[in-house]
Amino acid sequence: MDLLNTIVQGILVGGLYALFAAGLSLIFGVMRLVNIAHGDLIVLAAYAAMVVVKATGLHPLASLLLVVPLMMAFGYALQRLILNRTLGRDLLPPLLVSFGLSVILQNGLLATFTADSRKLDGGALETASFQLAGISVGYLPLLMFAVAVAVIAGLQFLFYRTALGRAFRATSDDAEVAELMGLDRARIYGWAMALCLGVVAIAGVFLAIRSNFDPFMGPGRLIFGFEAVIIGGLGSLWGTLAGGVILGVAQGLGAEINPGWQVLAGHVAFLLVLAVRPKGLFPRIDG
Amino acid sequence: MNHQITRSTVLSRTAGVVALLLVVALAAAPWWGSSATLHLIGEFSVYLALATLWNLLAGYAGLVSVGQQAYVGLGGYVLFSAALFAGVHPLAAIPLAGAAAALMAVPVAALVFRLQGAYFAIGTWVVAEVFRLCAAQLAVLGGGSGISLPAQVTKQLGAKAVREASIYWVALALGVGCLVLVWLLLRSRIGLALTAIRDSEIASSSLGVPIAGVKYAVYILVAGLTAMIGALISLQKLRVSPDASFSVNDWTAFVIFIVVIGGIGTIEGPIIGTIVYFLLREFLADYGTIYLLLLGALAIAIMLVAPKGIWGYVAARWGISLFPVGYRIKWKD
Fold it and tell me: With an 8 Å Cβ cutoff, are A278 and B117 in contact?
């Protein structure tokens, strides 16, 4: 029963990792950009929620009503003003600029909020749980998982059923031809980043309710999200959910054996997938 | 024949002589400098070497690694293990650390080379995290909090002045050595291949450059040398710990900033970058986080305005090169 419990909890945590991963997968899919500051943006969203909660007294989840649009606006501006200028054939500029951004965000948060670790108070939601076949399932992890599924379903719908999604896919396939067809690439990239940071905002608030956070947590979240993307298979949105779940379960099982092995077990699972199936478990079929 | 092909210019010959004199003067530093001076120059050499190696990896071979701290830390841990458990003399353990890391880099490369471009970068970071977490599990080396080099091992390096001087000389030798090695490498056949890969992977591949082989070789060479520097760093600090020895900020972020600011894909870039970095640090380090904010902003600004860095701008503007690796045609009238 212990083992089953560990697996169930791991699956639910996987939802959070899928939220880390979905935004990463989205912008890579649209513009081949890997944003090294992705994790730091998640932490930024957590701090933004903290400020909103302190100022308004809202429940952290209700703060999303403000934090999501704020982060989306920030993402749009960031893409239009800085990141768009780095995109081209060379991989180095976007990578290094987002690396610089990561250092700026970490130290900016450190200077503003100190290194103290914070947490958002989710109230009764944090501890509430119900019994299912002898396993105690928390409402918060379940909600997290449900939100992850909803977000990915929403992105999937947006990608394959809307005009904006068609523009995303066209730009991803061939940006130059898409421009010839009258698409404004700079704006589309801006929207993709806005969407990505909308997902990041949700991930950041759940992260802040679930555990302590501090200005230097970003890189770790980036790595979890990245591992989920690669395990699931590049370019597949549902794959990121599978990747997140596998990562969550691997970490849970690792922690069960030795508390020091929690994160290590996740990394090992990632490296194993890389060794055995370098394209991930559910790669997108090209063609 | 009314033309002549040369590799050197008046400027580059002058630069060579000045560099040689500078190295001789620096090698004599234990006789004219204070302990603090030795420490500063030693640290400068360490960053010069790390930057030169990362530049070779990212600027020429196109392998943008964010995980070189894996080998810095590994080098330190191998040196400590060899000195503590096998009684190896600490200085003799430095090449040992290099060899061990080069060996370790073979399976690592096989894994991370499956990832492309930016995903390769994060993949190398994961490997470095695995190294760090494994090091934290080594109870015999202090686990998560690390361990200091015991006095009986430190004694093998002689009295304080002798120890400081010998660690300094090793630092200087590694710094200058890496620079000379990369310069010679780039002047060789492999260097021609690397420069071609830097300029266009597709074109060089169509001309028969064995890209995969060259990249593997460069990755493994850089891993070994980086670990030797890591071993030296552990001697400078007389301590290893998972968080400090495998620090992504200290051993990779700063190094990347140095190379980007100085000029990626040039030999002179890392030298200029290291000088700028140390100048900034001397004046601004007291401001702590503000200093790091500025460094990040400076790197972004350089990437947006002059992506080839300070030296790239100078070289393109005036067509000069201090340590030439290419050929020039000189016309006679």
Answer: no
